[in-house]
Every structure is written in structure tokens, then in C-alpha cells.
Amino acid sequence: MKKGIFLGALVGAIIAFVWSFLSWTVLPWYKTSFKKFCKSEQVAEVIRENATSGHGVYLLPGCCEDEAKFQCDYKKGPIMFAIVKPTGKDFNMVSNLIVQFITLFVAAGIISYIVASYAGSSYGFRLLVSTLIGIFSAWIIAVPSWNWWAAPVGFCVVEFFSNAIMWFLAGLGIARFARHEGK
Fold first, then answer.
1. What are φ and ψ of residue 29, in 5° steps?
2. Which member of 2, 21, 83, 108 has the greatest number of CB atoms within 10 A?
3. Element (H, E) at 22
4. Nearest to 120 by CA among 70, 54, 160, 175
């Protein structure tokens, strides 16, 4: 990877990582988006007893049922899209943060590579390209969650703005440093 693209990816990933941390831990918007079950231990037990296929994505109503039953159950509710790991696992914040940073670094690297193609353009234009890529990714995450999985509008709005803001902020660094050698 060329030095400018690497530097753009690194700076962009650091900015995205810091924003993501602040967005999830300091700002209240995610905290107000998540709901709790009133009898969570009983719900957990029902899930453990009924998630007989093991770790995976579970839908309620199940989409593999006959169409008429699915339509009836969907209308009646509840509707749920859930990642279930019935046996649980150790929570390791450090390893999760490392994976998050690597994920953001790869994403910032892709954006840096694209932005570097516009190295002769103004900083504002390179920032616009980076921001538009971020808005695209935010849109393609938030809207399908609302459309297909009945995610609440409020949660989808938070997801959209958190991601769009993250890539705008990361774009400030990416647009500054992402260049192909010789440009």
C-alpha cells in the first residue's frame, strides 16, 4: 500500500474509531434506542430452550413457513430479527475493540484508495467524495434494517447519522493524506 493511502487509512481509522467510541458511550442516542425485556432471565431461558439450531440468526415469525401462516403471524406479531448464541461467550472488550479498529482501518483504506484517485482535486472535493461514500454506506445499512427487519425508525436514524458523521469526520483526515505516490 502506498504511503499516502496508508496514512489516509490510518488517520481515517483513528478518527472513525474515536467517533464510534464517543457515539456509543458518550452520546445518549444508542442507549435510548435499545429496549429491555421486563423479565429478561425468563426470556433468555425461553430462547435457550427454543434455539435448538444453535448459534445463528433467528427470525420470528420464521420465514421458511408457508406463506399464509407467515403473513398471519407477521401481522399478529411479534416480529424479531435476532442473533442468538444460546451458550453465551466470554465478553472481551479489548479483542472487540481491536477487531473494530481493524475493520475501520480496512474501510478507511478502501475510501483512501478511492479518494487518492482525486489527489489533484481540491481538499473540499476529496472530502465530499469521502463523505458521499460514508453516506452511501450509512444509507445501505439503516434503510434495509427498517424495511426488512422492522427496526424502529429512531434506531435507523441513529445508525444513519452515527455512520454518516463518522465517515465525514474520518474523511477530514483521509482527504488530507490519501494520495497516490507522485501526486
1. -65, -40
2. 108
3. helix 3-25
4. 175
Asked if 9 and 1 touch (Cβ cutoff 8 Å), the reply is: yes
> What is the spatial distance between Cα 166 and Cα 183, in angstroms, rounded to a whole number?
27
How much of the chain, in percent, has pLDDT values that exceed 90? 69
Q: Could you list the residue range(s) of the whole structural domain that residue 173 is in?
A: 3-36+90-177
d(CA 96, CA 93): 5
- Residue 143 in domain: yes
Closest CA to 15 of 137, 135, 177: 177
Question: Domain for residue 129, yes or no?
Answer: yes
Where do we find the cell 458523521?
A: 165
Q: How confident is the model over 25-68, as pLDDT tens digits?
A: 999 888 888 888 999 999 999 999 999 888 999 988 887 668 88
Give the count of domains, the chain.
1
The DSSP symbol for 171 reads: H
| 49: in domain | no
Residue 183 clears pLDDT 50, i.e. is over it: no
Q: What does the alpha-carbon distance between residue 93 and residue 91 come to, in Å, rounded to a whole number? A: 6
Let me know if residue 20 belongs to a domain: yes
The label of the residue with cell 489533484 reads: 120
Q: Report the helix count and the strand count for the chain, using DSSP H and E.
A: 6, 2
> pLDDT category, 89, cuts 50, 70, 90?
confident
Task: Take residue 112 and report the three cell numbers written for it.
Answer: 483512501
Percent of the chain with pLDDT over 70: 96
